[in-house]
Amino acid sequence: MKKKYIIFILFLSLFSTQKIFAQESYLGVKGGVNIPFVNFTDFVIDTRSFRSGVFTAPYVGITYRYMHQPKIGIQMDLAYSGKGWLQYSRRNNVNTNSLFTEINYIEVPVYLHWAIVGNNKLKFNIDLGAYAAYAISATTTLANDQDLQQLFVRYNYETDNKGDFGLVMGASFSYDFTFGTLEVGGSFKTGFANILPVSHILKENVAISTNQVPSITLSYLLPLSNLKGTKKSTVKPKVTE
What we know:
This protein is mainly beta and 241 residues long. The protein has one helix at residues 2-15; strands at 24-34, 37-41, 50-53, 57-67, 72-91, 94-118, 122-143, 163-177, 180-191, 208-223.
């Protein structure tokens, strides 16, 4: 709950600034990779025979930025984001069976964008905000040795939870060219919604199963609103004899 209050205070302080004026709006594209995993707690399977693995998934979308002040603004994405987990069962300290679960989401992060240091061209930025997402598909790949017991957490797209929401935080470097802005950054999303529904009576699933998603992305943004130029006068000067 404390995290939610911090986010609320940050956004409130942004909009309550006395001198807020529109500087620039940007529209662009963002692409990169997620390196997702899932936070499983109260896991009942012996951890000596269960290990999680690392994999990458795509993050692709469009992004919009509105700068209220020269260094502070709000940004939002509309993105296709792959999440999930990779699990191995083990025997005699050797990985045997594996289960790869990828859940694909439509995701909308909204966050405060702050250029904390830099000059008119090169800037170092930090981002802090929240996201909401909804699963549109899921795939499961099992590599199974039939002689070994399968010790896996399984996701059912038809019956398990599809919604996801949480906090997002990140940092980036950006450079303003004459043809637009290039930005490379990293972020981390921590989910609050359980992927697996929890039955408090039957205890079928783990108590907590939340998405945790580090990302590396590259963005290209074009300015939509530019400084207004003054029109040259078309009135010819009078010629006096």
